[in-house]
Fold each of these.
Amino acid sequence: MSDKPPLRLGTRRSRLAMAQSGQVAEAVSQVTGRPVELVEITTYGDTSREHLAQIGGTGVFVTALRDALLSGEVDFAVHSLKDLPTTQPEELALAAVPLREDPRDVIVARDALKFTDLPRGARIGTGSPRRTAQLNAYARSHGLDIETVPIRGNVDTRIGYIHDGELDAVVLAAAGLSRIGRLDEVTDFLSVDTILPAPGQGALAIECVADNASLIAALGELDDPFTRVAVTAERSLLAALEAGCSAPVGALADLPPLSAPLERGDPQADGQIVKEMRLRGVVGTTDGTRMVQLSTTGPVPETYDQATALGRELASEMLAQGAAGLMGERAQ
């Protein structure tokens, strides 16, 4: 190990944030040869009891970490990428987007039930307008009778609602449960054909100040180029819709020939050369009555500009079909 002082990694205090930051810390330590210490930072999103849709969603888990970076309190920070506002501050660099975990949403339900086996009138908890809109739309089109219930809190709190009998099921991100070692509690993986994830879901963002070239280069060792272009396209779609991360927008960029085998966990899917990327987007009213869902396929982007262009093109098609009117308040 180096005799240089430890690198300070800024992280939220939640169990999930600490788990994913711990994994990044280990990887950064390996590539830099320096120890990494976690610096716990409380964000507004962690202390507010309001629903994310009410407090705006955008940046509520990020601002305090970015302030700590800019003040020199920490050297770099780890975010869940879906929490990042779509505009990147000039003073900060998105130094790495590591390989993405499973982007899907999952159900944790009582009695090990699958989504389609839930009883009539089942109460499903989620804090996300995006999930609410798509769950209600799916239920409506498949003759299911569900009630979506807004909830907040960490994984323990949310799953606790099922054990207490208050809810029949909750919807969570597969990646988060994977990172804290609780995938065995999942009762159903929701195909992205049923529910498109949040833009950037399953990916992490590693950020540092923009003028620290040596740290940017070191952190860049953890970057996964395909994950980066995929989430860039998804976030470009979100930005072009002028929506914040609490808006009912789902997006996923993937490689069609690989996506189904990878969802099934088929190792044969890895290592194939794929030349096309598909970007799908959805926006809808939270009651699920009106949805705009479109997709586009093009060459796998090789640059940031190509990835953002793909997102913007799909967003303009969605706006032409009335997407703006389905989002409620548009982010200012």
Note: The CA atoms of residues 12 and 41 lie 5 Å apart.
Amino acid sequence: MTDETCQWRGWRAATESALYGPDGFYLRPEGPAGHFRTSVHASPLFAAAVARLLARVAEELGTDEVDLVDVGAGRGELLAGVLAAAPAGLRVRAHAVERAARPAGLDPQISWAERLPAGVRGVLFANEWLDNVPVDVAEADGSGTPRYVEVAPDGTERLGAPVAGADARWLARWWPLREPGERAEIGRPRDAAWAGAVGSLSAGLAVAVDYAHAAGARPPFGTLTGFRAGREVPPVPDGTCDITAHVALDACAAAGAPVAAGAAGAAGPAAGTDRGAELVTQREALRRLGITGARPPLETARTDPAGYVRALAAAGEAAELTARGGLGDFTWLLQPVPGEGYCPP
């Protein structure tokens, strides 16, 4: 393949087109569920846990009417599940934020838009959204200089220009490349996307759930990969597969900190994350919301056989949601947004 017969682009531009352009992967009728299982698809227990989280935030807000914004809503599965599991008396204003068209037959209670609603009070939930915000990839050349990685439509790569400007500053702070051949995904667009999401809340809790890594433990060769029909495949930006990379959620938390504090545009923390934000595993987050995976007492099999079978099935689903080496290894970023009399614990 020659330069004249292919179009070389940075990974950010190539991914944007492959995922969200005409006939892009995420605009296909089958949606994400046609290619991989998220926690939402694995068990209704996940939506029930989010419903409990929403109820807690509503109580902290002192209201029985609360917003739930699902960013990267897929086909609305999480919102439908939360509405079904919400406790009696809690009125939920459900907002789906998604580039794909509204699916037929979706609960009319759920609003559908491409852009974030403004001024909401409640919970903003982004499950496996940030990993699909396109980013550029950098690789250190033979001299150790970080350069943009360019890609052709068939997935062939080459090194391009040196990384400069804001991207270079982001790498220096969050993911420095020290040895030739080391790679990084430049998470600056994700930081901006998360700050915008946090800023859409007037009061409440912003939650991002993704496979993630933190400073001091970045993967030396990056995490960019593809998925198609349930299988991991090489990332090829031709629209036939998902293109994803793990998220530097500590950088996202720092970007959202001044927004959450009502000081948009102010400098973020010198290092690490905002004190108001918390990073926990999905195992821990769901444990706090009552999902443990513990088997029901064997005695129940004798006193309530049908109930025991139901509880055993639920325990199996909970175990999948919290499993080490699987869904339990997701990281939850919990970022409170105080405001309008709301001061979260």
Note: Residues 143 and 180 are 7 Å apart (CA to CA).
Amino acid sequence: MKLRGDRTSLAALAPFLWLGLFFLFPFLLVAKLSLSETALAMPPYAPRLDWSQGLAGLRAFLAGLDFETYARLPTDRLYVVAYLSSLKFAGVATFILLLLGYPLAYAMARCTPSVRKALLMAVILPFWTSFLIRVYALIGILKPEGLLNVALRAVGLGPVSLLNTDTAIYIGLVYAYLPFMVLPLYAVLERQQHDLLEAAADLGCTPIEAFWRVTFPLSLPGVAAGSLLCFIPMVGEFVIPDLLGGSSTLMLGKTIWTEFFANRDWPAASAVAIVLLFTLVIPIVLYQRQQAKLTELGR
């Protein structure tokens, strides 16, 4: 029994070791970098924390801690505009994904098992192709001489200019993240009991009323999970805005890349990344608290 308990403890410890190695440790490195100073060197920063001096170096670091880089972020219009633009793109795209993903997940959950498996495979199938290749395929569709304009000319409609526009970014975000919205919704809707809808019909509810009073409230955990899975990575998205939105698009992912590789201001880029991380932690914490309250009520 003791050996089995030790194995269980080791198995439970593995995820924490993984998170510590690939999340906590890189986060501490970026946080330390954000408190450094820009310098003409390689790498282009001067660390304020010198571990070689031991406790004396730590005391000197704490005494000189001023958060100058973080204080500069809200006063720089570039960072503010990029932050608000990222929230706008992510919020609107998440709403569009919910409008498209919910009916699709609902239809999948109500199909026969054989059709359901085929539709589920169709949703997962894009993951078999590289994300970058899929974005380049969208460029081939949306560019002025692309497949979209070829099809429009074939039916007698004029060409449209979508590439390097906000519309192209929304199309790319919705296309890339649709499975992340559909799968959590499908998992919740597929487990719902059909007896509840029959009971609602017996009590005089129309199908639409039964949906809004029974199906949709019970699917809210899936709505929240899918929205978080889409919103959080879209706020920091870099590839889609860079390839589909053009050089004039301002989003935090592109801003961080520019500060790192073009301006070589690593402390500022790290500070932006840390602020973005803490911003995205807030909805996750609120969601977990809400789920904990619902679990307590269920008990």
Note: The first strand starts at residue 37 and ends at 38.
